[in-house]
Design a protein that fits this description.
heterodimer, A: 123 residues, mainly alpha, flat, B: 506 residues, 73% helix, 0% strand
Chain lengths: 123, 506
């Protein structure tokens, strides 16, 4: 268990820091004071209008999801590119075909998304 | 002799091809796509018998268990696709701007992807592959369950399934992490080797196993992780309900069998895990069968009945021997019971889809007087119900017999007692359907038309239920020699060299 001591220490420091920051702001500042202006979304500037949870178009979610999907492939490609040269010398070209098939599957997904109009903002 | 992996790759390529056709095709009617998939998957069932037995590696086992569950996965997918064809007109009602039979390419291609996941899972002997294939299955199901976008029940089912499925996956991964942390291995054979040679602390190991059991308990719908089942089964499109109750369950049990195996021989662990499983089995049997009694909706009734059947399967799993590291007769019982369960469940859902389409509803009262409207369908449903209840000369009876025999062999007499009690409760609610079909007057007397493909499938399944019940010996022999019990021993060997640990020869 002793090798976990640094982690334990880090947890204690993190909790202690957060707690002391809150405590200091209550004692030294005026954080404990509440009134109507304090509780509003923005304390100064223009008065807020409308609800806090407006409806977004589903297109945003679609684009965000596709972005994450095609973004994540880099996570796989980076370590692949790092070991590529040594691996191909030691074990043959299997590593190349693996990545090619992975990229192929992604390409099919991309083509599918385009043909289905997922990236078509106007429709 | 073909490498075993080519089966899964073909299924995946088929799914990808179907997606591409769906996106490029100008034609509205995608039913041809489903028919093509049915043809190719049927051919693969044939090809699966010519698999090279030496084409496995440390991640991927090629043995009789794997082959058996792969054939089950393929057959289930074929029947589900036949159901989907039958269901397409209902589905179109709940999709925006779709005429009957049109634009349903994804509804046919996602089951194919699910099938690939199920087939991978049948062979997976490494936690990484087990997890990835389980996710392939589960994520496809998330989409399929919520497929009827204009149907609130389907959306509700989708949300429930997504949240609980993601939660259970979290438990599973956390459990795998604990076991990996203790043994330093993800490969099941290597874990067994590590547990036999190294001293591993028992308490954290049990904690990891508890998390694993929780995750898998969700997948097979065992009490106390069954709360999602009735709503999800009722809300999902009926072919998907059938797929969930058969495919998801079979996958959960094959993983459970494989995952438990390395831990059974560990002193102080195997006995405790089996005791927990026995308790879960008893509760699952009681809950499933008692809660099914007052149901009026047929899909909901089948949902509770599927919980009950998970209980009987758990009885067999809990009866595996904890001294030897093999499954023996209990493994055979699980495999045979699952095969029988698959036949009778698919049969009852197939008949339900046809009847529900003509009667516009899936309550029990819609089955009133079915014998007068279509004696063929009524007889098929009668077969399915008798088999689910466990009447002699059907697949269900022989499966239960094997399960209880395994429990007696393991000395778990109290489980057999509860089992027989719940079977008696089962008779009541299964025979209510039979009574409705044969002794009630039909509310609607129009005769029912059945598509030729559906008729063939119903006929074949009805026949198979009787074949499994009357002469099960050939199937059992297949499972026994070179089968489930013997191959488990081979799977327990540690990999010969570091070379064996590299995936797909990369």
């Amino acid at each position: 268990m002793s090798e976990y001591f640094p982690i334990f220490l880090q947890v204690v420091v993190a909790i202690g820091f957060a707690a002391s920051a809150l405590l200091v702001s209550v004692v030294l500042g005026k954080a404990a004071k509440t009134n109507k202006a304090k509780d509003s979304a923005y304390e100064c500037g223009m008065p807020a209008e409308g609800g806090a949870q407006p409806r977004f178009s589903v297109k945003f979610y679609l684009v965000a999801m596709l972005f994450i999907l095609f973004d994540i492939e880099i996570v796989f490609m980076y370590p692949w590119a790092v070991v590529f040269r040594e691996h191909i010398a030691a074990h043959g070209p299997g590593i190349f075909w693996s990545m090619l098939s992975f990229a192929g599957v992604l390409t099919v997904g991309y083509v599918y998304a385009i043909m289905k109009g997922a990236l078509d903002w106007k429709s | 002799m073909i490498p075993s992996l080519s089966l899964e790759i073909t299924v995946l390529l088929l799914g990808i091809l179907m997606l591409l056709v769906e996106s490029f095709s100008r034609s509205d009617d995608k039913r041809g796509l489903a028919k093509m998939a049915i043809g190719i998957l049927s051919a693969l069932v044939g090809f699966s018998f010519f698999v090279d037995p030496a084409s496995g590696n440390a991640f991927y086992a090629v043995d009789a268990t794997a082959h058996f569950f792969k054939v089950l996965a393929l057959l289930t997918t074929i029947v589900v696709l036949i159901m989907s064809l039958e269901y397409s007109s209902v589905l179109a009602k709940y999709l925006p701007g779709v005429t009957p039979g049109a634009g349903l390419g994804e509804f046919y291609s996602l089951p194919v992807f699910t099938c690939a996941g199920l087939m991978f899972m049948a062979s997976a002997v490494d936690f990484l592959l087990i997890f990835v294939s389980l996710e392939l299955v589960t994520i496809s199901f998330y989409i399929l369950v919520a497929y009827m976008r204009r149907h609130t029940a389907s959306l509700e089912a989708g949300v429930k399934y997504l949240i609980l499925g993601a939660l259970s996956t979290g438990f599973l991964v956390y459990g795998i992490t604990w076991i990996f942390g203790l043994t330093g291995e993800t490969n099941l054979a290597a874990i067994q080797h590590a547990l036999a040679t190294k001293a591993v602390a028992t308490t954290p190991l049990l904690f990891g196993l508890m998390l694993l059991l929780t995750g898998l308990g969700f997948k097979v719908a065992a009490v106390p992780f069954q709360l999602w089942v009735p709503d999800v089964y009722q809300g999902a499109p009926t072919p998907i309900t059938a797929f969930l109750s058969v495919g998801s369950k079979a996958a959960g049990f094959v993983v459970l069998l494989r995952v438990l195996q390395p831990f059974l021989g560990v002193p102080g662990v195997g006995v405790k895990v089996l005791a927990v499983l026995a308790l879960m089995a008893a509760l699952t049997m009681l809950y499933g069968n008692l809660a099914a009694l007052p149901q009026d909706n047929f899909k909901r009734l089948l949902a509770y009945s599927s919980i009950g059947h998970a209980g009987y399967l758990l009885v067999a799993v809990a009866s595996v021997s904890d001294t030897k590291a093999t499954f023996g007769s209990a493994g055979v019982a699980v495999a045979f019971y699952l095969a029988g369960y698959l036949l009778m469940t698919l049969l009852s859902f197939l008949v339900l889809i046809v009847v529900a389409r003509h009667s516009r509803g899936d309550d029990i009262l819609h089955f009133n007087g079915l014998a007068k409207r279509s004696p063929f369908l009524a007889f098929a449903m009668l077969t399915a119900m008798l088999s689910l209840a466990g009447v002699p000369f059907t697949a269900g009876f022989y499966g239960k017999l094997l399960v209880f025999a395994a429990a007696v062999q393991a000395g778990k007499f109290w489980l057999v007692g509860i089992g027989i009690l719940t079977v008696a409760a089962g008779f009541y609610y299964y025979l209510r359907i039979v009574a409705a079909m044969y002794w009630q007057e039909p509310g609607d007397t129009t005769p029912i038309t059945i598509a030729p493909l559906t008729r063939t499938a119903i006929g074949a399944l009805t026949l198979a239920v009787f074949v499994f019940g009357i002469c099960p010996q050939p199937i059992l022999r297949q499972l026994k020699d070179g089968g489930v019990s013997a191959v488990q021993e081979n799977a327990g060997k540690p990999p010969q060299s570091a070379d064996g640990l590299r995936p797909w020869g990369v």
